[in-house]
Design a protein that fits this description.
Elements (H helix, E strand, L loop, with lengths): L6 E8 L11 H8 L10 E9 L1 H4 L5 H12 L3 E2 L4 E4 L5 H12 L1
Parallel strand pairs: 1-2, 2-3, 2-4
């Protein structure tokens, strides 16, 4: 079975600064933002869990994870589980992730 037949991706992704991706994800974002054929990722199943701080980023909270979720879907990938959000402000991000993961698996 080729990789194009079945690909699963879990994308844990922090929001950063003014909602942009962190430095180690910028090249990936540059690639995914470029024009591609709409079915490029048609055999990919994915989910995104975003990390961030609501008080620090306000209306830009989770901007990069939300954009990533949208762009991956536009390339034909199928979301297998709702996007999750971890808010570091309350110190419960680990618990939020664990709760999200229980539903994911």
């Amino acid at each position: 079975m080729s990789w194009r037949k079945r690909v699963w991706a879990y994308l844990g992704h922090p929001g950063f600064g003014e909602g942009e991706p962190p430095d180690n994800a910028k090249k990936f974002f540059e690639w995914v933002r470029r024009p591609h054929r709409s079915n490029l990722l048609e055999n990919t199943r994915y989910s995104v869990f975003g990390l961030g701080a609501l008080r620090s980023y306000g209306d830009r909270y989770q901007a990069a994870p939300k954009e990533l979720d949208k762009l991956i879907g536009q390339l034909g990938a199928a979301r297998i589980y709702d996007r999750g959000e971890g808010n570091s402000d309350g110190g419960a991000m680990s618990d939020e992730f664990k709760t999200w993961m229980q539903g994911f698996w």
